[in-house]
Amino acid sequence: LFTNVIFYRSINSTQMAAQKQVSDGMTHGTLVVADEQTNGKGRLGRTWHSEKDSGVWMSLIVKPDIAFEQAPQLTLLTAVSVTRAIEKLSKVNVTIKWPNDLLINGKKVCGILTEMQADTDRLLSVIIGIGLNVNHKQFSDPLTDIATSLFIETGKTYDRSQLIGGILDEFTKLYQLYLDDGFAIIKPLWEAHASSTGKKISARTATTVIEGIALGIDNEGVLLLEDEAGKVHKIYSADIDLH
Ligand code: BTN
């Protein structure tokens, strides 16, 4: 799948570089990777700290033949791919916090940012940004309590290209399964790592905060949340706090 690789020692953001590739006509199967990002982007306009040589900072460009509404499923698929790659190489247990945070011992080790390009009703391409903290020795405030790295959790340093290879292998496998058989094949793999199912959470959406028990995801990858009155809410996009 990823035969076209664009590598930077330092760049503002692999996500922005990938966007430029897409507007220049490069779409399916391109990988943009950097040793350092000077302006890494997180979800909801946040900054993503991407120090030199300490993590995997990369963006994948794919053009799946799926409906616009299904694109978020690729975030879940990517979360499973990265989880598997980490577990294979480091033997550490990774959980997924819906939709896109990977946690080790409750702290965030990886974030995924999925951006779509579409015209009125057609999905044109998807850029999936992956930020994985690998060899950081420590984080400074205010990240200390919420962020972690593979080194901090296992006491070992990792070869970043081996991790990239592992992630791309897993992604390529799952992506093919997904295109052949749909999200139903990914759902149980995602659920096996879900950190929130059955737990009390609050979901902060753009307009409101809903508290309740996370029931899991539905067949589309949408989060189901049951509030105290027993009403089940479908959450398409939100920040989740685990209680
Ligand atoms: C999040 O907020 O959890 C998502 C973080 C995504 C970070 C990655 S690092 C590679 C790619 N380039 C960016 O600028 N952001 C994503």
Description:
With 243 residues, the chain is an alpha+beta fold. It folds into 2 domains: 4-191, Bira Bifunctional Protein, Domain 2 (BirA Bifunctional Protein, domain 2, 2-Layer Sandwich), CATH 3.30.930; 200-242, Roll (SH3 type barrels). Helix content is 25%, strand content 33%. It contains 5 helices and 12 strands. The chain has helices at residues 14-23, 72-90, 150-154, 160-181, 187-191; strands at 4-11, 30-37, 55-62, 95-97, 101-104, 107-118, 123-133, 200-204, 209-217, 223-226, 232-235, 239-242. Strands 1-2-3-7-6-5-4 form a 7-stranded mixed sheet, sandwiched between helices. Strands 11-10-9-8-12 form a 5-stranded antiparallel sheet, with no helix packed on it. It is globular. It starts with a strand and ends with a strand. The relative contact order is 0.14. Biotin is lined by residues 13-15, 37, 40-43, 46, 48, 50, 57-59, 101, 111-113, 129-131.
